Structure formats: C-alpha cells, structure tokens
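User: Just a sanity check before I run the rest of the batch. Below are the structure tokens for the first item. I only need the designed sequence back.
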C-alpha cells in the first residue's frame, strides 16, 4: 500500500514537473549553463563566424531531437576544453526550432539534426583586409566523424596552425631583424627563442601553443616565429663579438647574451622586433607554465602577451580579429548562453522584489 502511495506521489510530481517544463519549454534554453558556447543567429553570424580568425564548429540543432540531447553534454564539454586549452577554435550553436532562425537554417540546407559544420579561414590576411564579409574566405564542410568530444576536437584542431615557423639559420634571423631590403616592408615579429633548458620542454610547448593562438588573433599583422639557442646561438655570439654597425643588432646582442648565459631558469625568451622602427622589446613576465595548470591560466598568459604586443607596437599598428583586442567583446558577451539568460533571470527577480516598494 505504502508503495502505491509513493508511486502515486511521484507520478503526480513528475506530471507536475512535465507540465511546468512544457509551459516554459520555449523559454528554457537548451544550453543554459554553457559559458563557452556562442548562440549564433543571422544577426551575429557575420561578425562572429565570418569575420573571425578562429575555426568554428557550428551545430544546427532542435531542442526536441533525441540525437541533439545525446550530443549536448559532449558539445558543452568541447566548449570547456577549448576554453581551458586556449585554442583558436570556437563553438557556435543555432537553434533551428526558433522561427527567427528559419532563414539561416534554410541557407545551410539543414535537413537533419544535429548537423555539424566546420568553418575554417582560408587566408587570415585576406579576411583581415576585406572591406566586406565574404563567406568565400572560409572553407565550410559537413563534419561526418564520430560525435564524441575527442574526434570532434581533433578534427577542429587539425584545421588550425600546428606550430610556429622555425628559423633554422642565423642569417635568416639577421636579415629579418635588420630589415634587409629585398622588397617589401618588414613587418614586426615575435620570436620565441628557446634556450638550452627549454629544449623539448613542456613549458616551451605550452608557450608555443599560447603564441599560436595569439598569432591567429592578430590575423597576420604580426609574424610569430621560433628559434633555438642551439640553432642560432654560436653564430649570434660571433656577430655579437664583432663590432656590428647595425644599432639594433648591437643592442639585441648584448642584451640577449647576458640573458641566455646568465639566467638559467628561463626556458624561452620572448622577443618582439620592429625592424622598420629599429626597436625591440623583451617580454618581462615570468611567463612559463606547464600544461597541467588550471583553467584560464593559458588564456591569462595569452592576454598578457597580447597586451605586450599592443603596448609595444601601438593599437593602430596591429589588427586583432579575435581575442582581448578584437573589439568584439560586447557582441561576444551578448552571445554567450550563460550571461545572456542569467541576466534575464536576474531582471525578473529584481522586478518582483521591487514590487512592494512600488506599492508604497
Ligand atoms: C572585422 O572585424 C574587425 C575587428 O573587429 C573590424 O575592424 C572590421 O571592420 C570587421 N570587418 C567587417 C567587414 O565587418
Ligand atoms: C605605429 O607605426 C608607425 C609607423 O611604423 C610609428 O610611427 C608609430 O610610432 C607606431 N605607433 C606606436 C604607438 O608605436
């Protein structure tokens, strides 16, 4: 008997919950607790997806679809992982059940849910210099692989740049620093100089990944290179010990010599050279971190490095399509699920508690 009462009670409870859910169904966003996913619509797709240096995964879904429900935790996990690893990748979600997205979902010929598309930039320079949004600057493909975090992430990362260009010879570096006039203007570049301590180390690898994302964000307006003391050190020392008539080389030599051979703790030295203006800067942050460090550490380092680049070169001399200097911040914030819907909730609450005061 007791069992029946219990069953009846839970039956009623479930019915009640279902009724409430059904009533509010339209309002409860599918991805309510997601801070790392962007809600894409026809209003923001141009700036967030087709004026971005990042690779985007677009999920077209309908809240009632079973496979979408199955995939949901995976998509949320994917967003968290991308954010934690500070990858130049983003996840955009389009709710095709929302009538205001009907045109957008039609445009991409969405026939089943979920449909996953990857949107990858072809040429960052071209995108940064485009007067108009042009989808032709991107490769759009349907993702047909396994619908699991690992394979999707691997697919997205495969479309990003793998490593910084390695400068093997000192001559090349010398030419870049002195802006030897072969033809065009020598643009500023960031150089990761890996010391003997940093060789194949986790720290220099983690730093390189941060630099790759920063390079992507600046969309080709600043070059990012790497080299190692083993590769260029001996020749550099030879030049340092002879009298160089190039002012920039002479200054850099004396400063680098001390750092490379006295500071035995640094795994990399970060250098920013602006050959046109005969200027350089050495990043002074105690920067280097291991892969294991917690969420947002990599992002925080990326922000510091971007800040240093912008402070050194001047905002007007760099273009940022994504990241902390992209001027997309407010649009991004408005498009993130959590902030978007929690704001609405807070507003209703304030209104309710304010009511008695109004009555007085
Ligand atoms: C692309 O984004 C950049 C940076 O936010 C902006 O300056 C530029 O005007 C945008 N391009 C287009 C075509 O909207
Ligand atoms: C930006 O670049 C120009 C030309 O190279 C230079 O004159 C100017 O000083 C730079 N701005 C800053 C803040 O460094």
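Assistant: Here's the designed sequence for the first item:
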């Amino acid at each position: 008997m007791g069992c029946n009462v219990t069953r009846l009670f839970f039956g009623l409870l479930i019915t009640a919950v279902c009724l409430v859910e059904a009533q509010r169904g339209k309002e409860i966003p599918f991805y309510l607790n997601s801070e790392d996913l962007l809600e894409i619509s026809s209003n923001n797709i141009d700036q967030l997806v087709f004026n971005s240096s990042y690779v985007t995964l677009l999920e077209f879904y309908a809240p009632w679809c079973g496979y979408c429900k199955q995939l949901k935790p995976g998509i949320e996990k994917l967003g968290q992982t991308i954010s934690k690893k500070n990858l130049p990748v983003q996840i955009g979600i389009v709710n095709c059940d929302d009538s205001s997205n009907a045109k957008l979902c039609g445009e991409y010929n969405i026939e089943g849910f979920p449909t996953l598309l990857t949107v990858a930039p072809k040429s960052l320079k071209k995108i940064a210099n485009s007067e108009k949004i042009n989808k032709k600057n991107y490769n759009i493909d349907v993702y047909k692989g396994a619908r699991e975090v690992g394979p999707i992430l691997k697919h997205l990362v495969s479309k990003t740049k793998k490593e910084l260009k390695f400068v093997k010879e000192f001559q090349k570096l010398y030419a870049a620093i002195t802006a030897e006039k072969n033809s065009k203007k020598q643009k500023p570049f960031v150089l990761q100089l890996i010391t003997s301590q940093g060789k194949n180390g986790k720290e220099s690898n983690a730093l390189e990944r941060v630099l790759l994302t920063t390079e992507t964000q600046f969309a080709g307006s600043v070059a990012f290179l790497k080299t190692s003391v083993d590769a260029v050190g001996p020749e550099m020392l030879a030049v340092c010990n002879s009298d160089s008539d190039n002012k920039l080389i002479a200054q850099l030599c004396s400063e680098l010599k001390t750092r490379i051979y006295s500071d035995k703790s640094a795994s990399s030295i970060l250098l920013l050279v602006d050959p046109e203006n005969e200027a350089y800067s050495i990043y002074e942050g105690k920067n280097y971190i291991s892969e294991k460090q917690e969420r947002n550490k990599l992002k925080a380092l990326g922000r510091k490095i971007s800040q240093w680049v912008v402070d050194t070169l001047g905002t007007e001399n760099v273009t940022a399509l994504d990241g902390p200097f992209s001027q997309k911040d407010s649009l991004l914030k408005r498009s993130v699920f959590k902030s978007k819907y929690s704001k609405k909730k807070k507003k209703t609450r304030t209104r309710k508690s304010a009511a008695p005061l109004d009555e007085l």
